[in-house]
Automatic annotation (TrEMBL):
It comes from the Bacteria. This is Acyltransferase. Signal peptide: none annotated. It comes from Marinactinospora rubrisoli. The keyword Cell inner membrane does not apply. Pfam families: Hexapep, Hexapep_2. Residues 204-227 are annotated as: Disordered. Keywords: Acyltransferase, Transferase. Belongs to the transferase hexapeptide repeat family. InterPro entries: Hexapep (IPR001451), Hexapeptide_acetyltransf (IPR051159), Trimer_LpxA-like_sf (IPR011004). Gene3D superfamilies: Hexapeptide repeat proteins. GO terms for molecular function: acyltransferase activity.
Length: 227
């Protein structure tokens, strides 16, 4: 009996994974400010609320165990404009979190690895005698340019403005600031470790595909297998 019940649970879960995603035109999709054709949110989601302030473009894929939240809690009136905008052709990795209170914008064809955290709000530490969780947080808009790739476990903090066709290496923490187009950002805190300049090429130059790195050398480019 236990084996039969276990098989039934696995069968229902497997069916749900294949068929219970949120798709354009469904009742769940109609709660969003925009939900483009060909877009889907995989089952199961972790937390989704504030849908009237979330816009999803066309042919965008949102992985399972995702958190998409606008505002602190469900049921708030967050004003006249969307707080989260995710463009066309994006892919947001499984277990990622996009948490907005003022503005998070992802351009078209932005891809992320799993477990990426993007937020436009952070705690402050102005008063050393008050618990940090009780201090009023600070907001700053976040923007990720079209064509960018965000590696697994990366954290994008309030005020980060990442340009077009950038790479954020796995486990990088990107702080507030402007990161130019065609940059590779890596480290904790993140910094630009490589950049493409028209007429010059990659600075520093890319390593030859078959070359072994010198002993003790640090190559700032992320390994695609890690992203």
């Amino acid at each position: 009996m236990a084996r039969l019940l276990s098989w039934m649970v696995r069968a229902v879960w497997s069916w749900s994974r294949r068929h219970a995603d949120v798709r354009a035109g469904s009742r769940a999709a109609r709660r969003f400010a925009a939900f483009g054709p060909g877009t889907s949110i995989a089952f199961p989601p972790a937390t989704i609320f504030g849908e009237p302030w979330i816009e999803l473009g066309a042919h965008t894929l949102i992985g399972g165990d995702i958190t998409l939240s606008a505002g602190f809690v469900p049921g708030l009136d967050l004003g006249p404009r969307p707080l989260i905008r995710i463009g066309d052709g994006c892919a947001i990795g499984r277990g990622s979190h996009v948490v907005a209170h003022t503005s998070i914008e992802l351009g078209d064809y932005v891809y992320t690895g799993p477990h990426v955290y993007i937020t436009d709000q952070n705690h402050v530490y102005r008063d050393p005698d008050t618990p940090i969780g009780l201090q009023w947080p600070a907001d700053a808009p976040v923007r990720i340019g079209s064509g960018s790739w965000i590696g697994a476990n990366a954290v994008i903090l309030p005020g980060a403005r990442i340009g077009r066709n950038c790479v954020v290496a796995a486990s990088t923490v990107v702080r507030a600031g402007e990161y130019p187009d065609h940059s590779v950002i890596a480290g904790v805190p993140g910094r630009v470790v490589r950049r493409y300049r028209p007429g010059t090429g990659w600075v520093p130059p890319l390593r030859d595909a078959g070359a072994e790195p010198a002993a003790g050398a640090v190559d700032g480019s992320p390994d695609p297998a890690d992203a």
